[in-house]
Structure formats: structure tokens, C-alpha cells
Specification:
Layout (H helix, E strand, L loop, with lengths): L1 H27 L5 H36 L6
């Protein structure tokens, strides 16, 4: 029983030290400003829509080409 309690005490102490270390590291993080965050979010959203449209066009072209290649009825 003593070993069991010692094991759990060690785990608890390790967890507390881990949380302290995480809080210390989070203080060192350079968080983006609101304008930086907004700008990068807009860039990401524009890129997502651009690549979605690009892949839609490529898929439609490949689908049409496959339909012609295998003489299927067009959609």
C-alpha cells in the first residue's frame, strides 16, 4: 500500500510541476495582436475558397474528360 501511495504522490507532484511549466511557457509566448489575427484569418479563408474553387474546376474537367473517354452520358 505504501508503494501505491508513493507512486500516486509522485504522479501528482509531476502533474503540478508540468502545469507550472506550462503556465511559465505561456507567459513567454508572443501572442498576435487583433489586427494580425484578423489579417491572417482573412488570408486563410481566401486561400481555402481559392483552392476549393480550383479543385472544383479541375474535378469537373477531369470528370468531363473521363465521360468523353469512356463514352458515358454527360451529367
Amino acid at each position: 500500500m505504501k508503494d501505491f501511495l508513493a507512486k500516486w504522490k509522485g504522479r501528482f507532484i509531476s502533474a503540478v510541476e508540468f502545469i507550472r511549466d506550462v503556465r511559465k511557457e505561456l507567459r513567454n509566448v508572443s501572442w498576435p495582436s487583433r489586427s494580425e489575427l484578423t489579417g491572417t484569418t482573412v488570408v486563410v479563408l481566401v486561400a481555402i475558397f481559392f483552392f476549393a474553387f480550383y479543385l472544383f474546376v479541375v474535378d469537373a474537367m477531369v470528370g468531363t474528360g473521363m465521360d468523353h473517354l469512356f463514352k458515358r452520358v454527360p451529367r
